[in-house]
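stuck on this chain:
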Amino acid sequence: MSVEWYYTTNKQQMGPVSWNELRELADTGILDPNDLVWADGMAEWVKASNQQGLFAEVVEEEEPAPSKKESSVISPPRRRAERKRDEEVEHEEEEEPRERKQRKPARSSSGAGMHVGVQIGLILGGVFAIFVLCGGCVTGIVWISLRTGDGGGRINQTFTVVNLQERRWEERRFHFPKDRRLLITVTGNAPPGCDIDLHIHRGGGPGENFIALDSSIGPHSRLEFTVPASDNYRVRVANLGPGIAHSCVVTISER
């Protein structure tokens, strides 16, 4: 009997799969080197990159440090006359900015007062704009709540199911307000011939309380229905096979 392997992706435990299927997930990039893998007999989960045979080892060559060359040429000493001339030029260059600084006209007190007044005006204007913006946001929230009633704004949700095994299903739970018209679609990335179905159940328990069902053949599903009552609902994606559905993108939008 072949060893069954389990792995994690997007912080979710997946499996079991065979060793060849696990390597295929690594080759296609679905299994990341930082994900964890485990099989029966192992003491604990390990990184996929540490499991021998999953990923090719990459040896990075250490780049040699560049060598430093010291100059062995020493400049000859300058003559005394040349040093004196250079010192006079440097003294003149230092004196010129000092004279310009002394000739700079003093800033008038009236101009400074005007500058402070402009700054105060800008600050007060910014505070007033913030108050107006906050008031508009509160008014908009109240208006949306009164308009839509139970549940607030329009429904727009998206989630992805990855590596859904054959004859397995996964579901997510949502609270839908009454009388909302919802469109739910599934876009599946699966092998040719793989059949992905979409089920909607009411209630948070394990019962099979069907509300809507799309059982069309193929990797994609689509259904549209009106929410009968404000309650918790389960959106279930089922893989009838054959093969693994690598990803199923589920979109829930209000019509």
